[in-house]
Amino acid sequence: MEEMISKVLIDQDTLKKRVAEIGEQLTNDYRGKELLVIGIFKGAVPFLADLIREIKIPLRYDFMAVSSYGSGAVSSGAVRILKDLDTTVEDSHVLIVEDIVDTGLTLKYLKENLARRHPLSLKIVTLLDKPDRRKVDISPDYNGFTIPNEFVVGYGLDYDEKFRNLPYVGILKPEVYEK
Ligand code: 5GP
């Protein structure tokens, strides 16, 4: 697996430190509030698992799964919910946890969808942000790392469902795509 990575973009130690910083910030920002953390399957799972253990206030967490259609040239931004929340959000301050914001279409949909359920507040935390690729005007409230326009894998992010278990974020060798 490792031999298919051309470059480690963010190593394990750097990830750990940054996740701890974001956790501390969230602890301060949400102290005394009912926090509901919503992870987006599947990519956000490792980030969520590490992040919640750095948030030192009581919280609940739940998951949603979405599938996006045609994020290519003719993208309509259509997103379908594959798994919805088990819980209601009305009495909670909601924090969406994403792996990466790319075009922004997925998050725009999720934000609008969840806003209609009237949470007390609604914010977004993403591990990675690729602002160069944005198609809609949306920006995360908390961001781990701003990265260049490269396809990255690891720490939850996949290529063809693989590489999610790499402990770092890396760039794939082109030969992996060309196969
Ligand atoms: P958006 O709707 O912002 O274009 O897409 C967000 C989703 O696209 C992410 O949750 C992720 O699944 C996928 N994605 C975008 N960029 C990358 C990338 O560099 N690597 C991987 N593995 N997935 C990406």
Question: What can you see in these coordinates?
Answer:
- With 179 residues, this protein is an alpha/beta fold.
- The protein has one domain: Rossmann fold, CATH 3.40.50.2020.
- The protein contains 4 helices and 9 strands.
- The protein has helices at 12-29, 45-52, 105-115, 174-178; strands at 5-10, 35-41, 59-68, 79-83, 93-101, 121-129, 142-146, 152-153, 169-172.
- The strands form 2 sheets. It has a 6-stranded mixed β-sheet with strand order 4-3-2-5-6-7.
- The mean pLDDT is 93.
- Guanosine-5'-monophosphate (5GP) binds at residues 43, 68, 71, 98-107, 151-153, 157-159.
- Guanosine-5'-monophosphate (5GP) is lined by residues 43, 68, 71, 98-107, 151-153, 157-159.
- Supply the number of structural domains: 1
Pick out the low-confidence regions.
Answer: none
Q: What quaternary form is this? A: single chain
Mean pLDDT: 93
Counting DSSP E segments of at least 2 residues, the number of strands comes to 9
Q: Report strand %.
A: 25-35%
SSE succession: EHEHEEEHEEEEH
Which cofactor or ligand species appear?
A: guanosine-5'-monophosphate
The Cα radius of gyration reads 16 Å
Shape: globular
Count of alpha and pi helical runs: 4
CATH C-level label: Alpha Beta
CATH topology: Rossmann fold
Portion in helices: 10-25%
Q: How are the strands of the largest sheet arranged? A: 4-3-2-5-6-7
CATH architecture: 3-Layer(aba) Sandwich
Report the biggest beta sheet as strand number plus sense, adding barrel if it closes.
6 strands, mixed
Helix-and-strand structural type: alpha/beta
Q: Quote the distance from N terminus to C terminus.
A: 15 Å
